[in-house]
Design goal:
Elements (H helix, E strand, L loop, with lengths): L7 H18 L6 H8 L3 H7 L3 H26 L4 H18 L7 H9 L4 H27 L9 H22 L3 H14 L5
Length: about 200
């Protein structure tokens, strides 16, 4: 019997749905039946696109982070401000998004890292690879800010990028705990205006 023909529309729908469900319920809290029922896809058809739930989660992580990187690069390419103004604009937009989501979804990558990074080598490797892609883009922007005298130059831009990621993910966790995006706003402004400012 011939296998059902694959449809990229269904695959895309499964990825979009996976971002939503895994962000809200986590990996272990999202059952395959829940995904299939929400998408209206038979179990057999699901395996035409993803050989396992673990592979599915890995591809969701890559899809999610790839989408954020594309959005970030669009801002970089079209914003006429300085490097720190670009970062502030991009991350304030994210804060607005979290406010619209009532703060409960947070960052998929951070949520998944906390839940399954030690139980799934595949997902851990995907998260590390996507983080490194973000780091390259973010550090390049900081390096430009250092050249312009806007960003402190006593630390490598990669180290500053790591510091930004660490504080942002920590603030996201607190936002989920306390239910207010004000924590993100405070963290963003403190990092850009204090930690990244040139040393006098």
């Amino acid at each position: 019997m011939a296998r059902p023909r694959r449809s990229e529309n269904i695959r895309q729908e499964l990825l979009d749905l996976g971002v939503k469900l895994l962000s809200e319920n986590g990996y272990n809290g999202t059952g395959l039946k829940q995904i299939l029922d929400a998408a209206g896809v038979p179990k057999g058809s699901f395996y035409n696109y993803f050989p396992s739930k673990e592979v599915y989660a890995s591809e969701i992580i890559e899809y999610y982070m790839g989408h954020l990187l594309k959005m970030f690069n669009v801002v970089i390419d079209n914003h006429t401000g300085s490097p720190l103004q670009i970062i502030r604009f991009a991350y304030r937009n994210m804060i607005t998004h979290f406010m619209e989501e009532s703060c409960h979804r947070g960052c998929l990558l951070g949520n998944m890292a906390a839940e399954i990074s030690f139980s799934s080598q595949l997902c851990r490797e995907t998260m590390c690879r996507m983080y490194q892609q973000w780091r390259v883009h973010f550090a390049a922007l900081l390096a430009k800010g250092q050249e312009q005298g806007e960003v402190r130059s006593d630390m490598p831009p990669e180290t500053l990028a790591d510091l930004f990621w660490n504080q942002w993910e920590g603030a996201l966790l607190r936002m989920q705990l306390e239910g207010t995006p004000a924590l993100l706003e405070d963290s963003l402004e403190l990092t850009l205006d204090r930690l990244f400012s040139p040393v006098k």
